[in-house]
Amino acid sequence: MLLIAILVLLAPGIGYANAALGLCVIAGVVLAWRERRGLRTHAGVHLAVALFLCYWLAALISAFDSVAPGKSWSTVGGLLRFLPFALFACLGLREARIWPRVTFAIGAVVALWLFDAWVQAFTGYGIAGASDKDRLSGIFGANNLKLGPVLAVLSPFVLAAARERFGRIGLVAAFVFALVPILLAGERAGWLMYALVALAFLWREAGAPLRFVGWSAGAVALAAVPVLVALHASPAFDARVERSLRALQGTEASVDYASSGRTRIWPTAWRMFEAHPINGIGVHAFRYAYAQYAGAGDAFANADPDEGALHAHQIVLEILSEAGAIGLAFWIFGFAIAWSAWWRADAAARERAFAPALALAAMTFPLNTHLEFYAAWWGLVFWWLLALYCAALSARESRS
Predict the structure, then answer these.
(1) How far apart are CA 304 and CA 327, in angstroms?
(2) Percent helix, strand, coil in the chain (nearest 5)?
(3) CB count, 10 Å around CB of 363?
(4) Angle of helix 376-394 versus helix 43-63 axis, rounded to 10
(5) Long-range contacts of 271-278, Cβ-Cβ distance < 8 Å, separation of 24 or more
(6) What are the φ and ψ backbone dihedral angles of 326, each rounded to 5 degrees?
(7) Do the beta carbons of residue 389 and residue 106 sit within 8 Å?
(8) Is residue 208 left, alpha or beta, with left meaning phi > 0 and alpha meaning psi from -120 to 50?
(9) How far are the Cα atoms of 52, 113, 336, 342, 396 from residue 346, in angstroms, in the given order?
(10) What's phi and psi for 123, nearest 5 deg?
């Protein structure tokens, strides 16, 4: 359990996170070897292997004729470490009695990040130094603006831990505590993710459609207070909202401005898929192929692969452009496997898996913009959540 918590604690630094992941991988290999006879009957191991194959085979098949073979094949090789990590989570977190502590430990880490973000909002400085001038950058630093989506994705652990320890009052307090930093982080993808998380908790608490509608109205009224304060107190947040509202003008230029140029990236990703419909251009090869498929006058088309459009910024287009129809089929099959495992699980297993399941749902919601799922850092977070999901669903009560 400690290694799993350490991994999320070190997540802001990819080097430290990879070191912790390496320890988990070694532990996973050792555990899997020691308990190799029981792996065939372990439901969590079966689920983790099936999901890993869907994720990894999509990448493997894309690499054979990649436009950047070195990048794609190194990515395919690097992804292999996620399987023993998932096995470590399933075998190391197999006892149901420890799961409240697992959720609380992860929630506590994310709560520390939120507290640091609050301090930075008031003082301009946090653990990682000065904030970015336009957005709250928090624990990740001013040169790494992904605080909003990360906090939104991991917020189910904070909300679930607060609900478990302090009841509904704790849940409401945690909701507001997480809301303000996510708003000030300025990532609209994070706003939508957090809205989905809040709706899921409201539905879970309400338990009936009419009560859900009433409580949702109350949640909107509650959220309106910090939103109005942020609009008044933060010119950067006000500008971000104003930029988003420009899309309502309906013109091509206004929509492109509101989407920060993604309306140029998405058609380019689709053209990549049209040119390579079977297995795509290769995972992690988007930046190397972009200039070839970009439209005329596209400012993102840059000869330097480390600048411009680095990925599709949308999960379906990322998979289609980089892994083609075969890759998307693998992902859909993986989603079906994960969904089926949820519905086959009993109420206690669903309760344990609720936080990672909701985090994954918010993370992969297709009607949103996204970070890169085959990148080293976001892929690590994705597989950390998948490993927790598999472990939580398969954990069993200890026999006395």
Answers:
(1) 27
(2) 75, 0, 25
(3) 25
(4) 150
(5) 272/321, 272/322, 273/317, 273/320, 273/321, 273/324, 276/65, 276/321, 276/324, 277/324, 277/325, 278/324, 278/325, 278/326
(6) -65, -45
(7) no
(8) beta
(9) 23, 33, 18, 8, 11
(10) -110, -20
pLDDT tens string 341-353: 999 999 999 999 9
Residue among 54, 111, 17 nearest 390 (CA): 54
Location of structure tokens 């990819």? 14
Q: Which amino acid is residue 315, in one-letter code?
A: I
pTM here is 0.92
The span from the CA of 109 to the CA of 112, in Å, is 5
Q: Which residues contact 347 (CB under 8 A, 6 or more apart)?
A: none
Which residue's entry shows tokens 């998932």? 86
Q: For the chain, give the number of residues.
A: 400
CA nearest 96: which of 344, 355, 350?
350
**Digit-coded pLDDT (tens) for 270-324:** 999 999 999 999 999 998 998 888 877 777 776 565 556 788 989 999 999 999 9
Q: Tokens in use for 353? A: 């898996």
Strand partners, 125: 130
Q: Which two tokens stand for residue 371?
A: 């970070």
Q: Which residue has the tokens 């988003």?
A: 244
